[in-house]
Fold each of these.
Amino acid sequence: MTKTLTGALFAAMIAGGAENLTENAGIVNDLNVFPIPDGDTGDNMSRTIRGGVERVSAAGAGTLGGTARAEADGMLMAARGNSGVILSQFFEGVARGLEGADTADAALLGRAFAAGVKTAYTAVVTPTEGTILTVMRESTEAAERAGAADLESFFGAFIEEMYASIDRTPEKLAVLKEAGVIDSGGAGLAYIVEGMARVLRGEAPLSGAAASAETPDTAGKPDTAAAAAAFGPDSAMEFGYCTEVMLQLMADRGGMGLEAAEVSAFLSTVGDSVVAFRNGTRVKLHVHTFEPEKVLAWCRRYGEFVSVKVENMSIQHSESTVVNRFVRQTPARTERIPIGVVAVAQGDGLKELFTGFGADRIVDGQQTMNPSAEDFLNAFREVNADSVIVLPNNSNIILAARQAAELCTDSRVYVVESRSLAEGYAALTMLDLDSGDAAAVAEELNEVCRGVVTGEVTWAVRDSVVGGKTISKGDWLGLCGKELISVAPDKVSAACALADGLDLSDREVIVLIEGRDASAEERAAVAAHIRKKYPQKELYEADGGQDVYSFILALE
């Protein structure tokens, strides 16, 4: 265990955090709904922390205090957006807490993090709970309470509370709850801290399902040209301008006497989402306003611009979508276990459900981008078990799972012949590892899968004729395996006809797994039809969040 944090280690950890956030910037962008969905939180936070990395890279790491100061100064200059500015102020406070220190133990680092939280809160005129501020504060408080004797334990306590705090953000902010997402700034912080912790533990950066394949400067962002073109002479200016300024205070204009509180007070008269702080002779400010010209004119009274950014948030809003692709980044297990379970899933809801049912690792199984043998091998290694049970949950994925099983030398792997998400769902609900016999458990799960009938609702991508039924592009289809059961003009009708077309005579349980594109009204309509038509059956609903299939029916 590591008991001493040096400047070199701190620099490496910040670089690891920056790398992890950069890889996942698109995921964070897609979460951004507060105060409006401007879709760039991930990019802003990534650019902010990379500014600190670049500053230290140019100067070289020295003492811990000196390295922390260089990191903070670099982030200050690079800070963008509300969350980026708050992040820079957190590390500014950390630098103050580590000032003069050659090294630090867990206790000193905890005090420095607490100073970071205090500085971040001070930078915001009206701190809003349920944002990155809350996540910073609650995680730091938990880490300090833990009284860790080493850095790994400190970060372990911090991360455990961090995820719990992130999960609570929708309960603190109605806008998050309505959108069905967690706070984007908190998610960005999670990727940073996870990256830092992995470097501390000597582990390679995480990759795969949790990482965005897009570049950090474009991931998750709207098509700027298309968005700008959509804003015309009759468009409403609904959201104002996101305005950011880095101001160099000038002595001959009385700028040396200007304090952050005075800047914040003025900004509050012309807008909201105000963040402002002073560092030496420079002021950094952020505000959402309908009158950016007033902000610029007021700033010129005290100094000259180092940088200015003014963006039309109405353009950003019109092209934004809110997507929840954030998942907890789980490090490789350090202790060996007798039996581990790996399951393929697609959809945030199903991933969460499968984990709750006992899956140790989830392999992303998008219908149009099936996982490779290498993806499975990585999951097997992370599970760190003597025996591994795998549920591919897609007939197109079984071969890759088998190939990975043959290549795996660290564990004995048993591949369950689960051919759909419905079969995987049913199998995991019956998972029982108490016997300690992985082969027997795998065979039991195979038996469960063989007893499941799967129905799926999706849409037609072209005109065709199947089984005597004429299909037009855009029609909704109800399928049972390769058999076409229903064709309808909408997904609800297709799902109801699918349920009626399946043989329910000897079935006791119906599980309705609802997809990402199914609205609350559509879900309620399908469930109501099944309950009315089949009152003697037990119906369970699950929010799967999967793509491609609007509804999946599992008959048991």
Amino acid sequence: MAALSAFKAIGRGLLGAAIGLAIGWGLALLLGAAIPADDATIRKPQVIIAVGYLFALIGWLLGVGLWSGWAREWLRLPTMELTETDWRRYFRFSLDHKVIGLQYLVTFVVLMLLAGVLALVVRVELATPGEDILGADGFNTVMGLHGIMMIAVAVATITGGLANYLVPLMIGAEDVAFPRVNALSYWIVPPVAILLILTPFFGGFDTGWTAYPPLSVVNANGQLLFLLAFLTFGLSSIFGGLNFTTTILKLRAPGMTLMRMPIFVWSVLGASLIAVTATQFVAFGLLMVILDRVVGTSFFDASKGGDPLLYEHIFWFYSHPAVYVMILPGFGIELEVISHFSRKPLFGYKYVVGSILAIVFLSMIVWAHHLFTSGMQDFLLIPFMATTEVISIPTGVIFLAALATMWRGRLRLTTAMLFAIGVVFNFLIGGVTGIFLADVPTDIHLQENYFTVAHFHYTIMGGEIFMIMAGLYYWFPKITGRMFSETLGKLHFVTMFVFFQLTFLPMFWVGMQGMNRRVADYNVEFGDLNQIISIMSYLLGASFIFMVINMVRAWFGGERAVGNPWGARTLEWQTTSPPPVENFDAPPEVTGDPYGYGTPEAPAHSSPATGTVGN
């Protein structure tokens, strides 16, 4: 019975979605009657899909908990008390930031593994020349699904998962500023995953994850599902950004000044500012493509006065800052782990904070380097090349802070620390190769080939995904109350690190030799090296087996974790593992530096209710 009750909310959500879908379809059929006959065959299915999805999304949210836990209050009706404290709370509309953080984490770790499987399918196709398995259309759909899923993983695993669980703990708050909005931001996500999974059954989409028009306006209905999913996910990101910005600025514990905040909190604040200000632009761009498809507008139809290049500007005005929505929180994890396991204060803390804020600003003025080969006006090339080069300065400061913190430190090479050090190595390669793509002459040669694929993966997978691994291993005892196997964790790191290099380093060479990206077929001369890349990618995918076994085994049967197994000074480690519902037994007061290692006489926090102090 307990198992059945756990899924009641999801069952109500599915019922609400079915009712909403039926209402939406009925309304769409009425609207479809107004479509001109010569346009009805193409436009009517699009109207049915778009309107049906809108009402299904509303029905899902109301059923899963928005109505009983929130909307009833608008009508002055009593809302349902969300009181479960056992495992059932993870399958419902919970207001506890720790529950929502775990919901995000589990969802996006599973999505990451699924996206990895899709990457392996792509590499099976590319193992030999010719369209052997997927064909061009199937290849494009699988590649696009891999791309958008991994982008979602990179955006939401840290800011939705780890940040949701940890930021309130790290600043001494009981919860986030807007718990219901926080729950809403998560429960929007399952429909996104369902839409993406359904795209192959509606003809797929062959634009990749960027969805450039005019192709994205005229191709199969699977493209519309992709656009609706991307737009919905953008709403989740905006809700999360608003919540974290308000939480960090307004709910810090007494004594937690801005310059006493852990660097991870600063990095989440920076990413949240970008999410709030930039995500709305890609949402408008996606909405315009949807309107071109469904309503018949012509924002991007050049024959009717539209401009396809307008979409690229709107898309990249968000999507390059989005790189820093992914990377900034990852930098925060990297520096947290390196400082705590080097037993040294974070080098240049104030300069790192300044660099994070500088990146937030500069990320908004570099987008057009993605358009160097798209027909942009020549007089804009040099200014955007210069801004792209300038943003490497604050990024370099963060990189040097990591190196300087480790210098002459008492390094403890735990699994988390190894992944953090791996980030330093990988991001060095990603950063250096990025210079070639920032400079106009070399970018014109390299942008559409596998050099760009290798650079992007060294930045996002070699940086962001390795950072996620560092964070998962570092905070795993705090979240689960269990200790994992360091042996399995280090085996995961070694295999993942080695096979990552062997997979992506050769892509720089085949790219410089002229192998195009986003194609299912290629010249025979690249066959042998592509076969090696594919084999290495299979071994890279297999390395994650160690992570899955380790974490599942530890979560359900690992050794009990104490409150602070790493001996760290930040606030989240000064409570039990896992924390109680209210986070702390008594409100904490911050009295010192979270990275003040070597000064035990200066405690980092105190608890006025108990009179205890801690380091």
Amino acid sequence: MTDHSKYSSSKNSLKMDLLISLFFGLLVAITRIPFISKYLYEWDSVNFALALENYNIAIHQPQPPGYILYVALGRVVNTVFHDANLSLIFLGILFSILTVILLYFLAKQIFSRNVGIISSILLIFSPIFWFYGEIATIYPGEAFLAILIAFTSYQVLRGNQKFFYLSALILGLAGGFRQDLIIFMFPLWLFCLFYGDNGYKQILKAFIVMVASVLLWLIPTIMLANGMGPYLSASQHFSGSFQTSSVLFGAPLSNHLLLDGMLFSWLILGLGFLGALFLIIFLFKMRKTIINRKILKNFNFIFLALWILPAFLFQVLIPLSKPGYILVYLSALILILGYIIQTFSNDISPKFKDISPKFNISAKSMCIIIILILYIFINSVYFFYPYNLNEETTWETQISNMNYSQKITLGIDLSFMYNNEKRVINDQNMDLHIKNIMDISNFNPNTTQIVIRDIIREDQGFSWRKAMYYLPEYDIYYLFDSENSQLKSAKMKDNVSFSYGKMHLGSGVEGNNLEIPIKPSTTKMVWIMDDKSQFYKELESQIEIKTIKLPNGLNIYYSDVENITMPLKVGEFIFKPMISQN
């Protein structure tokens, strides 16, 4: 081939890559933008939104370890939208687009352009990836940075020296978005560094670049936290949360196994039901090859294994509570799935050789198209079908107070229901609570205080964090005791505690017999609580509780306190009327 022919071929290939990338970007946008969440979806979403206003790790704006580069980027975007929810969703969609495009180029390099196209389409319609592209969350950013680290490291693996220091820089900076990326992606980066013919001095320089890039965000984070001591103190909640999830930290084995089961259900959703079936069949057929030691000499196999295994094994040993965590290695699994579908199509394409000429395409292409259509159809039906599971009473009922059918409903919902309907019901739930609370107060925040307990689903329920964000002028309390912290061992202490929020500022108090003042101007107390709880029973014995039944099966409770003169003692909380100074 002449130099001119090579140039022409390269130019045509680049043009094709650009057109494919543009198509994928548009496809992600049109499958996300019409369905974005109206409200901040979960507790952490509010933390990030508040951090856009005031970065303060000590009061979880955002939660430790700080995510300083993500917040900084969010602030830049927010100068355009002036809406924290829209700004964070925009970032999620942007990161989703970049992840899909980068997956195409990486899969093309490892296998072929066809595998790249297949993999990207699979990822776009992956239910878990799709779901997190509609809400204000950091996980699409984690997916992008993981594949960016993988992509630049793979170039080093192939001997492209231009990416040697760039990969180190990206790995270090990624920690400013999510620190776990450094831990989970470090083995992959290190392997790529040592696999090539690189001298020790060069490798040492790469480490220096990586450490320097970590310090670029770590030093400002610690400074903004007022020093290393306060920063580490604010981060202690992590080990406490593991006490309910991992047997390594003292959690019951039943809890650990339950959460591991949820992890595998999230992986099924991440791959798509048809994709998960293909993967299982492939692993069964190739079991002898996979366990053969010769495969360990295949650097592509090692590369993908080092991408997947560190985060996956961590999540098996120390289970985490949200499916978003699998996005750190979901792209790698999808890439493998794309290769499997390509291989499967090669095997069965002879069965289509008599039909494909009628459509003017090859038998192999027809097979791939059919599989992708089925994959997209099944996932789309799952994603848009209006399941009713989220509308049950399990939103605010403690697990110990649930009947058997409610526990099953909750288990199915937390394991398998991550779709558009879940986002829709979250928005409806927020609308209902905000409207009814405003009606109760007659649109006067000074007349009403809000007390929140028993939120099992902090991602969707009308939690304290979301209440204080969307009703900033109200006095909002979040009560914690042993009864309503069944899944939160970090807060299951001898003392009780409450958090208080107003005007987007929060504070907390811990102790025994905590007093909560009922202001002289307060005429109504709104209670978000479980009507089967001991708290409800004790409260009901002292004051009338009125009920507003919501269409989705939830209730809002409130009491008239205008003429209350004696304190209400409920558990170790004392609601004490304050005497007017006038």
